[in-house]
Amino acid sequence: MPGSVDAAWLSYEGGRSHTATDLLDCREWPHLRLLGLLVHRRLAPRAMLAVSIAYGSTVDIWQGSAADWVITGMRQACEHHGYGIGGASVIKYQANAPRLVVMVRLQEKSVSEPVRGLSGSIAEEAASVRSKGWEYWHVWEVDRPKMPTADSGRLFLVVQRISAALRRMNARSVFLHEPGFFIVLPALLDMALQVTCCAARDLVLSSEIARRGLKLCAQCGLDLSESEHCRAPEDADALLLLDRCGPAAWQRRWAALSREWLRAPARAGGLVALMFEGSDASALAAVTAGLLDGVVSARVAATATFVHSSRRWAFAIIHVGDDRIEDALLPPAH
Ligand SMILES: [Zn+2]
Q1: Each residue's pLDDT tens digit, 188-197
Q2: 112: CA distance to ligand 1 center in Å?
């Protein structure tokens, strides 16, 4: 029996700012369940559900990805408990940290014509607020064309080295993860390489890859359990795992995949390029040593750490095979 609660506002603005991982997992947030709003179906069939969140200023992988993650997570949580949701309205503003308010109107799952955002005087009031950084979207389009953030500019600092190494080894097929797929992917497509895009199991990023008509990693399209991980195609000539997490998370996401690919019996050549955020230079040495352990024919061809947008990044290329990619990695002579 649907309940009688007509509106619920859940505030997640206290305490620390949410990370990208928090937002990706928002369908699991306990409040929706603890309050019984969804589990016991205490919300009315057309109730309004709003969530307000503080999040880190470097969370977005494209402009507005935080809102895309929260809307997608709310949709999953609602649909799991038999509610549908129509359109979402979104407010963004600044108060110490960036803030986001996502408001959805519930509807029967079977209704095919979605409710489009807020209505009436609430919508007018939300649109007319004059506050620092206040922006209001009556209807938030998750499927809109995406715009990169300034943060993704750090990949311009490594893309030429990666392209040069791939050219030198005559690569044809590449397995790629990069936040948002704005910088490295276009360079690879210009080289007429076959690219498999891995979303690191981010549903919003998977949908974006599909929306752009790109080839999505086979496992990203499946509902894998926690212990399973994505796998690179055996015939990929290179793995480009250019993440923005720290070294521990990088290893959780990518170390097993990389080792599996490096240790494939038929592996005669190829490279793994890796990137993560880390101010500790020893972390890069530890991660590369872990990948090389037991792989006789592989070696570290390049390492670098650099600062971009006040954060330090670690980058390395591990190479398998005889061709001399190191020459291609040297900075041009003056
Ligand atoms: Zn994947």
Answers
A1: 999 999 999 9
A2: 31
